[in-house]
Task: structure prediction
Amino acid sequence: MDNSFLETIRVMPKVELHLHLEGAFTFEFLFDLIQKYGDEDNINSIVDLQNKFEFVDFNHFIQTWFWKNKFYRTPDDFKESTYETVKNLSSQNVIYAEVFFSPWDFTSNNLNVESITEATIEGIKNAERDFPIKCSLITDIVRNHGAGTAINRLNQITPYLNNGITGIGLGGDEFNYPASDFKNVFMEAKRRGFRLTAHAGEADGPQSIWSSLIDLQVERIGHGVRAVEDPLLVDYLLGKNIPLEVCITSNLKTKVFQSVNDHPFKYFFEKGLRVTINSDDPPMFGSNITDEFELIHKEFNYSENEISKLTKTAIDVSFLSESEKKIHLQQIDSFWKNHQLD
Result:
């Protein structure tokens, strides 16, 4: 592997469009919370904690996800964790991130949605003050919380629209909670001015993507990788310029695909789809955004042209204003102009 280009990858400006705040904690911070609340006798070191996040399958991943949620018990826990996460992103030269968060995952901890949301926004603002990064929130209303109460969830976060929150997303169990159930809430969110994205084509097949596009009218698809099973869908995504938020390592860890060679990212990119590279849940999958770019450099022999194109595509399909996009695109162009490799 080209070590000089690996160094370039480490220092280049990056963009994240598919990152779950609840899955992007630092191990150090989570370990501090576990020590603070003293609930886990078998977690005595960072290594013990890292070992806890070795998954056997997708269900084990979900169980572990909810296990770590129980350690977030005060608004300050969210504020500090968010700050550390955004700081970590900036240390990788991420210049812009759109981050999913779902405050309803924590209401069983005797916390209300408003206090979690305000603490999270404060953590982001503090990190933006201290580091050269901008970050927007996308509220994941989570399928598993049910369609019947989804409009209530939308109402709870609407006061924060354009004041920390940019859009809504739909994660969770694709198979048992189909996108079509959430049509009304997405149409209402669109009317209110939220930007729209949905997880689809990860644990379920192409029909989940079709429904997200037609019923929810989303602007982007989270994952979307199982579109490869439907050539008509691939052509539709190409023709309509629908972006995909792709997370290669995540798909391998949750066994959506068995190997990098099986993964459709390279095929999508070469076909001309608007794909972006993302990390999803970095500590949980053992791969951050820098690692993801190193992966495609190593596995697909992607170098400057492909990697700079992917970064600029991420800005193009982001929910930033056109003027903000222009500033970031100039920043990316300037970097690559000054880092021409011999």
